[in-house]
Amino acid sequence: MTDANPVISVCIANYNGMAIIDDCLRSVLGQEGKIPVEILVHDDASSDGSAAYIRDRYPNVTLIESAENVGFCIANNRMVERASGEFVLLLNNDASLFPDALATLYQAAQNIGRPAILGLPQFDASSGERVDIGCLFDPFLNPIPNRNPDTNEVGMVIGACLWIPKRLWNELGGFPEWFGSVAEDMYLCCCARLAGYAVRALPDSGYRHWQGKSFGGNRVAENRLSTTYRRRALSERNKSFVMVLTYPAPVFHCMFPLHLVLLLTEGAVLALLKRQWVPFREIYLASLKALWHERKHLRLLRRELQAQRNVGRWRFFSVFRWLPHKLRLLLKHGVPQIR
To answer: Is the pLDDT of residue 219 over 60?
Structure first.
């Protein structure tokens, strides 16, 4: 499968993935069609021996071994920098492709004829149920799973399986390494849409994904929302960063203050319901502190991104739905479990 002159570079970030990496790599190696492909794996200082396992069992894979744990954003940036293909597919190590996935993505990219970020339907690996076909947004950048195969223009496609031309990746600057992880796919997709590029979720083919393996949570279990302090803190912080950077004026000037007020209110209510200060301090107050700490960086980057905006401000918000998604989830599943 690995080719000397690849068209597609499949980039897989791995950390302690011994139990799942075979399914991921075999799904790439077993792709239909004769499209030249290379596989790159960045091992993020795994302690389970998975790097040595990949090196021994998959000699045609380009293995990048990091001496220290650098996180998802840096890992992917390193792989794309080394990638030789015209197109890049970012693939989680806990995801596995359907046999026709690469052929479907490549054909769609040819049909569109211009740079675009593409995604495939996501299926839960444990149940087999379709989770989403990309995501829409609510006003506060909470992702709303799209399950309508006729809705192809979306706000974002999940970074567990994200297709992008390497030229577009370079133009957008890749993932922001200071994000660490979580919402880096949201950032990239919002930047692409702000610059006038399409973000599309294809209705055909797909991939299986063990959701929440990396950080825990981020899914419904027994009709209850379940997450972790770490995931929730990163999510609230990084979604706030993306809002600051990509929302065009004047919507930004209206929505961002409201977002901050609601964030504090949500944290206070959650702390009262759980009768503990930890959720407010570790998630909500931490997000506000991060916004203040990064204020100069955010201001400069916002100015740069908005200067490059190539889409009407209302067109940018065409993939938004105005009912807050958290309210819908609260009414359906109750107060989330945070551990």
So the answer is: no
